[in-house]
Amino acid sequence: MIKIFKSLRILILSSLCSPILGCYPPEPIRSPNSRTDKYLSKLPDSRKLSTLTFIGSHSSAAYGEDLNEHVKTQDLSIFAQLESGIRVLDMRVRLTNNTFVMHHYYFHLGITFDELVIEVQNFLKNHPQELVLMFMKEELDERKNHKSNCYVLKQYITKFRDLFVDHWSIDDTLGQHRGKILLARGNVGFQGCTQSLHCKIQNDHRKSHWKLNEHKWQAIKALQDEIFQTDRKFQCYINFLSISSSVSKTPREIARSMRDPNFRGSVVDLTFTDGMVELMTGYFLQKVKTL
């Protein structure tokens, strides 16, 4: 019997690596019929968003080859992320000269919001039965602007006609929004011009000290376990696997290697690797924890 959950679940990966650059450990073998680029296409139009689990990427635009290793969070372009199954994008924009440029804190990522939207648009043209959630977050202060971020966002909505949905509900169905970008509000900015989701969020990202990373995993696991409880109090859950990078460890190293090699006091059940992304994979391999 398949259990249908009545809450929207979003899992934000800290890093998505490329098979070309190499992942550790090797990616699990998938069924020949497994298509990460079109998995929503297989679901009926009547399926509600509140019954789905979406996978997202942390600071989705931070993938450029020239980025500092402590800024870079992804190996794959936006298009490649979507092809790999990502359906939630963490869009951190800075309003500069009345346009959006992509940032990660103080760091300009060398790409504009327009360019990223075009990548998503191209993906949806190839896969019109899919959809993408885009969390909009204002990074840093506005620079040399006389227009608000909501005003500028509406200009983009007009420019990319019929692509964006700025107000929607988790009780909407897939059939209502196939081929669209659903806009949602991050934790800063865009109040009133994007959908605010009242979710329970685990984003304990400041556990930078290497030996405290296991605390982060326990926070991840606790929220994930709550989703499987019958008396859930929230309609939406967002679980971030990311942690702020430290001087000695980059975001991608934290995602793929959780423990200090010299530290052997772990109380975490490490299924087959130490990386947080792989720990989450191991979690879902449990039969009772499959979404």
Features:
single chain; 291 residues; alpha/beta; ten-stranded mixed β-sheet; 7 helices; 10 strands; 19% strand; globular
3D architecture notes:
This protein is of the alpha/beta class and 291 residues long. It has helices spanning 78-83, 113-126, 149-159, 174-177, 213-227, 251-256, 276-284, and strands at 8-13, 53-57, 88-96, 99-104, 107-112, 132-138, 164-165, 181-185, 200-202, 236-240. 22% of the residues lie in helices and 19% in strands. The protein is globular and about 50 Å long.
Give start-end ranges of low-pLDDT stretches: 17-32, 258-273
Distance between termini? 13 Å
Shape assignment? globular
Largest sheet: 10 strands, mixed
Helical fraction: 10-25%
Number of continuous helical runs = 7
Number of strands: 10
- Can you write the helix and strand succession as a string? EEHEEEHEHEHEEHEHH
- Beta fraction: 15-25%
Rg over C-alpha atoms, rounded to the nearest angstrom? 19 Å
Question: Which secondary-structure class do the elements indicate?
Answer: alpha/beta
Average pLDDT over all residues: 79
Q: Brief description of this entry?
A:
The protein has 291 residues and is of the alpha/beta class. 22% of the residues lie in helices and 19% in strands.
Layout: helices, strands, pairs:
Layout lengths: L7 E6 L39 E5 L20 H6 L4 E9 L2 E6 L2 E6 H14 L5 E7 L10 H11 L4 E2 L8 H4 L3 E5 L14 E3 L10 H15 L8 E5 L10 H6 L19 H9 L7
Parallel strand pairs: 1-2, 1-10, 2-3, 3-6, 6-8, 7-8, 9-10
Antiparallel strand pairs: 3-4, 4-5
Organism: Cotesia glomerata
GO biological process, one term: lipid metabolic process
InterPro entries: PI-PLC_domain, PLC-like_Pdiesterase_TIM-brl, PLipase_C_PInositol-sp_X_dom
